From TrEMBL:
This is Yip1 family protein. It is found in: Membrane. The keyword Cell inner membrane does not apply. The keyword ATP-binding does not apply. It holds the Pfam family Yip1. Coiled coil: none annotated. It comes from Marinobacter lacisalsi. Its main location: membrane.
Length: 204
């Protein structure tokens, strides 16, 4: 089962990446058996915490929640953005392959696998949203992003079969793409908020 890779990516990533390369799963199966499941963690936890737990800003301030319908709407949009983001990053891995001496594939199997498994720490960090404290969430997601970047760098030479020296530049280019994707989702959020998909706050 593909979910077995979750533990290995934290304990012995090198051998886990080698197993992932040997499996060479098709993108459709990888999405159904891995990405669709793990990407649910953050949106579901965010829905529960924002609609039912609430949060405060500063001391002696009232509890703030999102209206259940608004929280559900934003969680679904976040989930879809995550799915698109993983695919876009995987496509970028495959598209840049020849530039760094790797093999470009028609279905981008290796590229999407690399992107999906590198995002595992970010998927799991979604559990932190059950405790909706901004500074705590920011620290957890920052740590997850750092480890995700390390996994990307570590997995590139193994999955894409290139020398490790080339992986440094390759990983740097991919992190730039990841930042562009992140900024694009933020811009998209602002645009959606302006057309009626913004959060609806209620006092707890």
């Amino acid at each position: 089962m593909l979910l077995n890779h979750v533990f290995g990516l934290f304990t012995h990533p090198d051998s886990e990446w080698a197993d992932i390369r040997r499996e060479h799963e098709k993108p459709a199966r990888l999405y159904v058996a891995y990405v669709l499941i793990l990407a649910l963690i953050g949106p579901v936890c965010a829905y529960i915490s924002t609609a039912h737990f609430g949060w405060t800003v500063g001391t002696d301030q009232p509890l703030i929640k999102l209206a259940p319908g608004s929280a559900l709407q934003l969680s679904v949009l976040t989930y879809l953005a995550m799915l698109v983001g993983v695919f876009a990053l995987g496509y970028a891995v495959n598209w840049m392959a020849r530039t760094y001496g790797a093999r470009e594939e028609p279905d981008a199997s290796n590229g999407i696998a690399l992107a999906a498994y590198s995002c595992t720490p970010l998927f799991l960090a979604g559990f932190a949203l059950l405790y909706p404290v901004p500074w705590f969430n920011a620290m957890v997601f920052l740590a997850a992003a750092v480890y995700g970047a390390y996994l990307m760098y570590d997995g590139l030479p193994i999955v894409m079969d290139i020398p490790r020296e080339r992986a440094i530049m390759y990983a740097g280019a991919l992190l730039t793409v990841a930042l562009v994707i992140l900024v694009s989702t933020r811009v998209g959020s602002v645009l959606l908020w302006n057309v009626g998909f913004g959060p609806v706050f209620i006092n707890g």
